[in-house]
Design a protein that fits this description.
Order of helices and strands: EEEHHHEEEEH
Radius of gyration: 19 Å
Strand content: 15-25%
Strand order of the largest sheet: 1-2-3-4
């Protein structure tokens, strides 16, 4: 399946993120992402992104994170996120109601497609989808996820570089004394 568009939007009524994937064949897949699932998805996305040869070649974790950060900025800057999702005459192979996802996995590329990894979205039972993804698509998915989570009140601290989220060490303040 070739991906044409992806949309993620927080739905306050459901307290979930709605993920919509449209293939170039006009097949639309709809999924619900819970807070728990988003946390799992984020970890898988980061692992897959760090497998990119430009980042993976570096043994030092800080250098790898820096490379990933540069890649992310370049992909986001060069991507079109403002285009509206193409609703309409899309087929719905898994049905009109979004499927609640519970399992996710990321797989290494195989010999046939060495630049493509696999990202799998699946419910507890039933059919999900397996996507062939490259590093650019992973960065775009992570950007969409970051934007959707910002609309929620989930208090999730997602970042491409976990060090960015670490607060600076508070300096020790001597205790106040009252006389």
């Amino acid at each position: 399946m070739n991906i044409h568009q992806i949309q993620m939007a927080y739905n306050a009524h459901e307290d979930r993120v709605l993920l919509r994937i449209l293939s170039s064949e006009r097949a639309e897949f709809r999924f619900w992402l819970t807070r728990r699932y988003v946390k799992l998805l984020w970890q898988v996305l980061l692992k897959l992104i760090e497998r990119d040869p430009a980042a993976a070649v570096h043994a030092d974790e800080k250098i790898r994170r820096t490379v990933v950060g540069f890649q992310h900025e370049n992909v986001v800057r060069g991507s079109e996120f403002a285009k509206p999702f193409e609703d309409g005459l899309n087929s719905l192979p898994l049905g009109a109601a979004p499927i609640l996802l519970s399992r996710i996995s990321g797989k290494q590329p195989d010999a046939k497609q060495p630049r493509q990894q696999q990202l799998s979205f699946h419910p507890e039972q039933g059919q999900g989808i397996d996507l062939g993804v490259n590093t650019e698509l992973l960065h775009m998915i992570s950007k969409l996820l970051l934007d959707a989570v910002k609309q929620s009140d989930w208090d999730l601290k997602l970042a491409m570089d976990p060090d960015v989220l670490q607060p600076a060490q508070a300096q020790a303040v001597p205790p106040h004394k009252l006389n």
